Amino acid sequence: MNKQIIIDGEVVTYRPGQTLIQAARESGIYIPHLCYQPGYHAIGSCRVCMVKVNGRWASACTTLAAEGQVIDNRTLEVDAHRKQIVQMLFVEGNHYCPYCEKSGECDLQATAYELNMQEDHFQHLYPHRSLDTSHAEVWLDRDRCILCGLCVQASAEQDNKHLFTLGGRGTATQLLVNSSSGQLGETNISAADEAVAVCPVGALMKKQSIYSRRSGERTYDKTPISKLEFKA
Amino acid sequence: MSKAKLKILTSSLAGCFGCHMSLLDMDERWLELADLVELVRSPLVDTRSQSRCDIGLIEGGLCNEENIHLLLEFREQCKILVAVGACAINGGVPALRNRYSVADCLEAVYLHGLNVTQPQIPSDAELPLLTDKVYPLQEWVKVDYSLPGCPPPADAFFQLISALHDGREPDLNYVNRHFD
Ligand code: SF4
Ligand code: SF4
Fold first, then answer.
1. CA nearest to A144, candidates A84, A85, A97, A197
2. Which of A53, A47, A118, A130 lies closest to A89 in space, CA to CA?
């Protein structure tokens, strides 16, 4: 039998075992998210999907739906916290959207637009991160990596290649490549890999396919990510 | 409706003047704005008034000591200070030098640069000293509003200025809220 929770005043049905974000998606309710993508295990690391469950903060991708939950999702308070988290993701990397090949197609940027973020608020760290252009088809720009871990999962479970892992601690955490030189060029990654397709930002990119759509015609140019989530 | 005209200051610091071009891109809407605002200090006009302004539209980040002195002066002079464009907001393209030291940058250009015939690092006293890195405005002064974009669309300037003139809280609609 279906059970019910309440999200922003709306009754949402769920099946036991579903997380809040899964239940919400099935009812066409958008909860902002970056490191969670449907079809992947939730690791609850980006914190963008934080909601208030009966007054307490919880990540919607890792919290199971349960009877009696009343959830704040798109309230001013919750979205204000989310915006700060996204701002931290921006200052923690080097995000130069004006020339980034992912601009207009990027989930991080689109989430910033969704949350009406207009500036970065925090002090910029301008970290020194390395760029790997050693592979013929794919490049890795760590300046833009948000350490979501999606490529790690995709490469291991869908591509069966185990090419990536997250290494280091705190602000020194970075995406590592599984080859003796640590370079992509030595791996058998291909532009068709799910690991490349799933990257929500401009960190893992296919070579020779960049700037293929004009500004104004790209995915998020006119339509917010919250509206596109449930299209098709 | 004879509200006093808003006094506006504009300036380009470590920017490319592209945001100013976008400001001009309002085309005939400037005729409408002419009744609402007056440019009192700007590279677009000849006057350089030091008197108090309502709005300062600042393009570009901070790459040298002169930029910082000017910004502090603008902050004093303006009731509302607006960071205009990607460079003012996060340093933008000039901030790409933040991964190198100033010495490395100067040497790469003036000692080892292509076609350099008399290698020397410029040191004329007239030249403003470069800052250790390129800073966004908000890391030196309080910024009241930001117009993202590279450049922000002409429409975004219009939305901001007309809201401030009418005493409304400025907001950007979705298509004017772009980072590129
Ligand atoms: S990855 Fe996204 S947020 Fe980062 S620079 Fe590129 S478009 Fe901007
Ligand atoms: S490269 Fe992309 S998918 Fe992989 S961790 Fe970084 S942001 Fe996530």
1. A97
2. A47
- How many other C-beta atoms lie within 10 A of the C-beta of residue B73? 14
| Cα four-point dihedral sign A63, A67, A69, A74 | positive
Q: Specify if B71 maps to a domain.
A: yes
Domain interval for residue B141 = 6-96+132-176
Into how many domains does chain B fold? 1
* DSSP assignment letter at B92: T
Could you say which ligand is closest to the alpha carbon of residue A90?
Answer: 1
Contact between B136 and B98 under an 8 Å Cβ cutoff? The reply is no
Question: Which residue from A232, A225, A229 is spatially nearest to A28, judged by alpha carbons?
Answer: A229
Question: How far from A28 is each of A36, A41, A114, A192, B59, CA to CA, in Å?
Answer: 16, 20, 16, 30, 41
Residue given tokens 């015939």 in the structure block: B117
In chain A the domains, ranked by start, together with CATH numbers, are: 3-74 (3.10.20.740), 84-211 (3.30.70.20)
Residue B120, domain member (yes or no): no
Which residue matches tokens 């509003």? Answer: B145
Instruction: Say which CATH number the domain at B33 has.
Output: 3.40.50.700
Contact A20, A31 (CB under 8 A): yes
ipTM confidence score: 0.93
From B95, B133, B148, residue closest to A119, measured CB to CB = B148
Residue B121 placed within a domain: no
Distances (CA, A) of B21 to A165, B39, B59, B151, B156: 45, 15, 11, 8, 13
Alpha-carbon Rg for chain A, nearest whole angstrom, is: 18
Q: What is the pLDDT along chain A (232 residues), one digit of tens a residue?
A: 679 999 999 999 999 999 999 999 999 999 999 999 999 999 999 999 999 999 999 999 999 999 999 999 999 999 999 999 999 999 999 999 999 999 999 999 999 999 999 999 999 999 999 999 999 999 999 999 999 999 999 999 999 999 999 999 988 999 999 999 999 999 999 999 999 999 999 999 999 888 889 999 999 999 999 999 886 5
- Residue A127 half-sphere exposure, CB side, CA atoms within 13 Å? 22
Which residues of B are less than 8 Å from A88 in CB distance? none
* B119: in domain: no
User: Mutating which of A118, A128, A214, A223 best tests the B interface, going by the most B Cβ atoms within 10 A?
Assistant: A118
